[in-house]
Amino acid sequence: MTTNEQAPLDAAQLVSGLRATLRQGRTRPAKWRLEQIHGIQKLVEENEDEICAALHSDEHKPRHEAFISEVHAVISSCKLTTKNLHKWMAPEKRSVNLAVWPASASVVPEPLGVALVISPWNFPFLLALDPVIGAIAAGCTVCIKTSEVAPATSALIARLIPKYLDTDAIQVVEGGVPEVTALLEQRWDKIFYTGNAKVGRIIMGAAAKHLTPVTLELGGKCPLFIDDTVDFQVASRRLLVGKFGSNNGQACIAPDYILVEEHLAPKLIKQLKSTIVEFYGEDPSQSKDLSRIVSKNHFQRLSGLLDDPSTADKIVHGGERDEKTLYIAPTLVENPPLDSPIMSEEIFGPLLPIITVKDFDAAIDLINDKPKPLAVYLFSTNKNYVKRFTEETSSGALVTNDCILQFVVPDLPFGGVGESGTGAYHGKASFDSFSHRKSVLLKNMGGDVSARYPPFTPVKQGLI
Ligand code: NAD
Question: Where in the sequence is the active site (predicted)?
């Protein structure tokens, strides 16, 4: 039984109900779409305290962080969509050439259809609802599968959605692997998945059966290179708030490891240590501004990375842990071997390796030796480095002299490439992600030219 004591899932019935609503055309008019998006905004505004409490219960998320990164982010997305929906829905005129004249051509966005949104635990409110705003904006019906790893938030979403939204068109399913498996057996018109790449492969495999288009928002190891053209104090603040201030490192775009030239490492590490103390005090376990690790499994996974013989003696700051409260201190690790577990898999927690490299070229090589990340970060004012980073590395996003802010620029599509994902969303990209752009050519019965039709006599071919 799921957290909200839902009836057992009948996935086939759920999809056929959503499909029936779609066929009625109820989700097509802009009016319905705007009402539902307004419903989401109202849901968030009227339940802000409960949402923050659920996020605190699931991962000890500090209220300020929960408000900014989940509550406020969903409201902003609703407002942006409301403001632009008519513009996004409008057909785009295209020119026609003489061969088809007289005619008019346009690209008309149409809803892909019945959509499935599968969400993860790390931003369990935002990452469940933000894609749904895109699906509704596009005119789809949608099923949201919340994450079982964030049970309080999942239960809250399941309870609130029916109070504010049209449940014939928007359904919530709680649960874990069995529920996803049952849902994936159905035919969907779009699957939007956020989570790890291993499950991403399962999703893509299931989608292939019906040639269902997918967006896969995955993760990976986001590298950060820093040189001495920047102020280390400002840089440390920005990169550490991107790491520890973002769900304590449990964020897909948190910097995963730092690359720095060897001679700069002592100065950088000294500054990073001092900034950690500035942010979280001498004993970060007492700070109110630090999330906890989401579950015992993830606590043990992260402990395993630190305790690995390759890494255990490389900790230069932090390392303290308490399994009972799922606390792991902000931790710096200097030069773990490149083939160690901490440098081989996505860390997704408050551990930050600092890897020394010979020079900028070596940093680029190291980045390119790994799968394409969701983001690369460059702290440098060297214009040539910026150009080379842009041209010589491939990633979902590139940011200079800051971290994670790409997430809050709605005009920038958010998504990965290769191992870090496929497709993108945010702003108009969310609308596009759930739309098919249909080419429409409208001809009338005039302008018939006999040269188009056989028999192709020499006269018609222009030979005589
Ligand atoms: P998770 O464990 O909550 O799983 C994500 C979803 O997949 C859940 O709904 C879960 O029920 C389902 N799932 C899990 N195992 C499954 C299986 N075997 N078969 C079918 N469905 C299954 O979250 P997670 O994967 O631990 O999330 C963390 C990962 O997500 C990290 O890799 C992170 O980088 C990535 N992430 C990416 C983004 C992004 O926007 N690109 C955002 C957040 C997280």
Answer: 217, 252
